[in-house]
Design brief:
Helix content: 40-55%
Number of domains: 2
Number of helices: 23
Number of strands: 9
Structural class: alpha/beta
Amino acid sequence: MRGSMFNNSHGAPTQAGEDGLNGFSEQEYDTASDDPHDRHKTGHKTGGVRPKPLGQDTMQEAFDASIRPKLDAIDKVRHHLTGIDIELPAIVVVGDQSSGKSSVLESLSGIGLPRGGNLVTRCPLELALRRGQKESALLSYTDPNDGSKEISNSIQLVDIPDAVNAATRHLAGDNSGLVPALISLKVTKPEAPDLTLIDLPGIVRNPIGDQPEDIEQQIRDLIHKHIEGESKVILCVLPATADFATQEAIKISRHVDPSGKRTVGVVTKVDLAEPGIKDRLEATGADHLRLQLGYVAVRSRTGQELKDGVSSLQARGKEAELFRTHSELKLVAQEYKGVPALSRKLVQIQAERIQSHLPELQKQVNNKLRAAEREMHKMQGVISTEAEAEKCLSGLLERMHRRVTGLVQAAPEVADHRDKELHIAPRVYAMLENYKSELWEAIGGRDFFGSNDCHDMLKEHSEEVRGATLANFVGDRVFNGIFAEQVYSNLKPSAKDLVQNLHKYMADVLWKLTESTFAAFPRLQTAIKALIQEKLDKLAQEATANAMNVVKSEKYVFTNNNGYMKLLNKMKTYVMRKQNGSGDTVTDFEDEDLANLDVLDVGSGNNEQVLVDLQLSLTAYTQVVVTNLCDSIPKLVRAQLVGKVVKSLSSIIRDGFNSESDVSLIDFMHDPQRVAAYKQLQDTVDNLKKAHATLRKL
């Protein structure tokens, strides 16, 4: 689409561009007026019909086939994406309130726009100009009271100023405040350039009347929002009577576009310019402000000319006359002066921006749509009836139950490698394993019972029962006393610790799963946490009581485990061989149960032999007791705090809600703020889908 139809890379119009596509030839200054102000006075167009330049039909057809569909699509997408943070290609008009910004837009469009002494533009205005056989205007905006409703009205061109003012009042109220809501105005005319512009409020310094105190900052923030991003072209309107570099519009644009690579300067009031305007427009001097997209000088109707009824047709004639007769402006290259040159430049820039940024726009819309759909899925829909609440709860409970069951069974499909604490199977196994080491530690350690310390303890206790029985019959009393003191009295704490640790761990896991499963329902989440905590507390109490009963049963010294005698005989054989000096080691027996006997100092007297036999019996029996507890206690505790919870998780929660007769489930799941947030998200998804569908057609 470049070449004969657009300006060259330096902005100079080609011959075809001079007379053709969306441009104004020199004949334009002799054409019929398109200004609705003129029709308002006469009731019809004045003057004749401009002859159609050679080749214009062919170029327009080519433009319509390539760029026009994309331009129309961008306009549709912009409307759909109002309020959504996606960067769209746009030409944004920025300027001081008194810079002549409105006059430039009127000159480009050939329509009248709202005018006034104070801040008139209080909402961004999307002005979409389209070439068409019939004149038409469509004004639309989103209802401020219903984000899903669009207000759209077909209007006469002559009524555009009043219609825009009415829409502004509807959106921004009757005062002088600003709102970011977009007003869209699509104008179709036979001689209009295919161009879309975003007009923003003019920059003001001080509030006037009922304007907010921070009106200047509000305007700056609004401008920044619209001109940020590489796809945006900034159309800076600058009066020729001022130093370009000191203008607020330039300062704001330089903040986001320091090199000026996407800024166009439109210089107004050139009829009042001081000497040197040619050099400033062409930026030939070292001290001149350079913009990579250059400057274009225009002469629009002055305020007095508007009062005097000067038509846009007459204004164009005055502009042409100025550029022919002015001592400096007549020497300025054609691409730097006149509304026709400005129109051609903007059409070319617009086409290039759309072509280059369309793929990125499609990518942004796709990413935003996927993210919004994921967010909607997390919110689980809007609950408005008890039946919907029941159905939703059932689905969420089933999901949570599957997750917990999978984590208990170490199912790979539910593994969460970001938080391995959720992996119930290995974490619980580690706790049960740890119970064994803690139990041995509590009763003195595995080596204690074969140690000299244990032997001395037995000897001390045996001395305290002398005289009550024969020296070789001290076993029962001493054995029972030592077992009660050293073993039994230390069995309870480790069992209680196991219950407490597993209780805390399961509470942490179930709370995390509740938070992730019921994230969309904060009140329901809190209630479910309370129910789970209550049930876990009760089960922990039961587990503790049951574990203590098992421990208490060990107070009675008894076993049917034949492993006791096997181990005892094995140890006796080991001691006997050691006494005989056979030199056998633990390795010879290949049994770690004998490792703690290496420190045993075997005596030779009868009394010592009795104590050795007693010590070996205590060692073997303690091994049996510990083995029994390390099987029964972990199984019991796990069954209570893992098995029962997982099996009855759904009923725990349902029974909890059913017991509250005065509270319905929907009370926990219906949240007006959430409903509003969901509706807003749904609108966003709908609009993103529309934008996505529009872009897919390109």
